[in-house]
Write a structure and sequence with these properties.
Elements: H1 2-13, H2 15-44, E1 55-62, E2 69-70, H3 74-83, E3 87-100, E4 106-113, H4 115-121, E5 127-128, H5 133-137, E6 143-146, H6 148-155, E7 165-168, E8 171-178, E9 197-200, E10 212-213, E11 216-221, H7 227-244, E12 252-258, H8 259-299, H9 301-309, H10 314-350, H11 365-391, H12 395-401, H13 406-446, H14 469-484, E13 504-507, E14 523-526, H15 533-536, H16 549-554
Parallel strand pairs: 4-9, 6-8
Antiparallel strand pairs: 1-2, 1-11, 1-12, 3-4, 3-11, 5-8, 6-9, 7-8, 10-13, 13-14
Helix pairs in contact: 1-10, 2-8, 2-10, 2-11, 8-11, 8-13, 9-12, 10-11, 12-13
Length: 557
């Protein structure tokens, strides 16, 4: 306490130095703590399911390429469903847009899924039931489970709606269940995409098509089965399929990803690049303050020499200087805490929704603990070296320098060396921070290569028994013409799947190539577009030409 009181008096004598040092450290601490909050929220945000650690997603993966993985196909899903022994439940789903009929027609986003999806998630319905194997095996597959929001909007929260019919895509579906308000189908495909309803996805056992990867999955491991054991089991399945199924691609295996890591891990990885820039900023702040402490220690050589001459031990000098540094860091932590609160609001306003935790940005015990750890690290970075160097002050040299002469010149040389070293390290750290920030910006911009502020989208699903192929084409042409005629619209088009939202994944063969399952396959995501789509997105052809109206009218491939 005596050391802290003396340190407070010493810092009070230099208010300018104290204010600059505290503010510098506070900015570095706040930047790192706020970004740590984002990463922690993404990685440790619990999934709203019972025993979420047992939930995984299954993918097909190239055996030789670490990061080349794809969804499941009909055939690969059936392989896992029939041959894997590690799953208590396994389900598949695909995201679609549905048209709701009735007095208030609407277009909503939902999912078609197998009964295994609800069995894996184990969230009981608020009313009614889930899909069952009987639904899947029988002829009456027109069943639907409603979200809580759609149930409130369409049926005014009436529990008696279960068993009634709802018009979807021109067909009557029987409502068999209503999910609770907090239920979400959380996967890498559906994160930040609220779904309004779920219909039954009935996959025919005879449909073993393997070249079209379009099925998302969610699975629950059996009690006591670890991820390593499950991974070994699905690899065994892949080997069995490779040997017994002639149409199987021998280069592909299965890969399991914990659902929590899948939902939050990829966004956390994107923000971790920015967190690295925050650490570089903190290191820069600590280095700047350390340079200030070193310069201040050189200017206090006479004071330290007098203390040593009066009998103070060198450990006593080190302890006193560390107490000053600790007090600086404590003051900086308090200011950093206030700046963190402000920066969390700023991050919430500016970070893309794709990298925001579901529960928001909250200053909790983890963030406060992060600040405490940062203060401990910064104290060591800032205070130890200046304190040790100051403790090595020679008493005779220090007392001589108080009278000027060559000693004062020596001090000036030391100060100049400190400034040069500080500038060199500062430039290095600034360069690192700029590179990391530029990398993060490039990661965001790379997925948005068009000027989207002038592009507006709308979801329309033209489905149902009343819409033949000719009727759909006529409606599409009329729709495009009416939109293009609106004031201020320069171009309009339609697309089966908006860019950056995935698409149908399939293998392709070019020219006279022949499919060979022993060779590496070329796979792409494909969508169908109208002629005006590229003009609406402001996209020009890199080579060749774009689609023409004649090709559109004749459906020329």
């Amino acid at each position: 306490m005596n050391d802290l009181r003396l340190a407070l008096r010493q810092l009070a004598k230099s208010p300018g130095f104290t204010a600059v040092a505290v503010l510098t450290l506070a900015v570095g601490i706040a930047a790192t703590a706020s970004l740590f909050t984002v990463v922690k929220g993404l990685l440790f945000d619990p999934l709203p399911y019972p025993e979420p650690q047992q939930l995984v997603q299954a993918w097909t993966k190239d055996r030789e390429r670490m990061f080349e993985y794809a969804p499941l196909s009909n055939g690969t899903f059936s392989d896992l469903q029939e041959r894997a022994s590690c799953f208590a439940a396994l389900g598949a789903f695909t995201i679609e847009r549905f048209n709701l009929g009735g007095d208030r027609p609407d277009s909503v986003e939902g999912a078609r899924c197998t009964p295994g999806v609800f069995q894996a998630l184990q969230v009981p319905p608020l009313h009614g039931r889930w899909f069952t194997r009987d639904d899947e095996a029988g002829n009456s597959t027109a069943v639907v489970v409603l979200s809580h929001a759609l149930w409130q909007q369409r049926f005014a929260s009436d529990p008696a709606c279960v068993g009634r019919a709802i018009r979807i895509d021109g067909r009557d579906y029987t409502i068999v269940g209503v999910m609770p308000s907090q239920f979400e189908l959380l996967t890498s495909w559906t994160r930040r995409r609220p779904l309004a309803l779920w219909t039954l996805l009935a996959l025919s056992p005879a449909a073993r098509e393997r070249g079209n990867w379009w099925l998302g999955s969610v699975a629950r491991l059996k009690p006591g089965v670890t991820l390593a054991q499950a991974t070994e089991d699905v690899r065994r399945v892949a080997e069995d399929v490779k040997k017994s199924v002639a149409a199987a691609d021998p280069r592909r295996t299965f890969w399991l990803m914990p659902l929590g890591r899948e939902v939050g891990g990829i966004p956390a990885l994107r923000v971790s690049v920015l967190l690295g820039a925050g650490w570089a900023l903190l290191a820069l702040a600590a280095q700047n303050v350390a340079g200030m402490m070193l310069a201040r220690g050189v200017s206090r050589q006479t004071e330290i020499a007098v203390r040593l001459a009066l009998g103070a031990s060198r450990w006593r000098i080190v302890r006193q200087l560390l107490a000053e540094c600790l007090l600086l860091c404590m003051l900086a932590a308090g200011c950093g805490l206030l700046l963190t609160l402000w920066s969390l609001d700023a991050l919430a306003a500016h970070l893309p929704a794709e990298v925001m935790p579901r529960s928001g940005l909250v200053l909790d015990g983890g963030t406060v603990g992060c600040i405490v750890v940062l203060v401990a690290i910064v104290t060591q970075m800032v205070g130890l070296t200046p304190a040790l160097l100051a403790a090595k002050t020679d008493v005779v040299t220090g007392l001589k320098e108080s009278g000027g002469g060559t000693g004062g010149q020596r001090t000036q040389r030391k100060l100049r060396s400190l400034v040069i070293g500080q500038i060199a390290i500062a430039l290095l750290l600034v360069s690192v921070a700029m590179q990391l920030s530029a990398t993060y910006r490039a990661m965001l911009v790379s997925s948005r290569p068009v000027r989207s502020e002038e592009i507006f989208t709308a979801g329309v699903s033209v489905r149902g028994p009343n819409y033949s192929r000719a009727a759909r084409s006529a409606l599409t042409e009329r729709f495009i013409a009416n939109v293009a005629a609106l004031p201020g619209v320069r171009a309009a088009g339609v697309v089966s799947q908006l860019p950056f939202n995935g698409g149908q994944t399939t293998t392709v063969l070019i020219d006279a190539e022949v499919f060979d399952r022993t060779q590496r396959q070329r796979w792409v995501q494909s969508t169908q577009v109208s002629v005006g789509f590229f003009s609406a997105f402001g996209t020009a052809a890199l080579r060749g030409r774009l689609l023409t109206r004649d090709e559109e009218r004749t459906n020329h491939h």
